[in-house]
């Protein structure tokens, strides 16, 4: 990937999704010390 000009990949996963976190960890991904911010524009509807 670096040869193509892509030195890093970033993936967002919910911190509660332990199975997916373990999967990406096995692929060599590590947790970065960052904060992800979001703002809901439309509220989720409860079913």
From TrEMBL:
Annotated InterPro entries: Acyl_CoA_acyltransferase
Q: What is this protein called?
A: Acetyltransferase, GNAT family protein 9
Gene3D superfamilies in UniProt: 3.40.630.30
Keywords, comma-separated and alphabetical = Transferase
Q: Which source organism does the UniProt entry give?
A: Oceanococcus atlanticus
Return the SUPFAM superfamilies for the record.
Acyl-CoA N-acyltransferases (Nat)
Q: Which GO terms describe its molecular function?
A: transferase activity
């Amino acid at each position: 990937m670096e040869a193509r000009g892509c030195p890093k990949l970033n993936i967002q996963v919910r911190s509660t999704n332990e199975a997916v976190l373990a999967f990406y960890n096995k692929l060599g991904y590590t947790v970065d010390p960052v904060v992800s911010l979001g703002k809901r524009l439309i509220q989720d509807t409860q079913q």
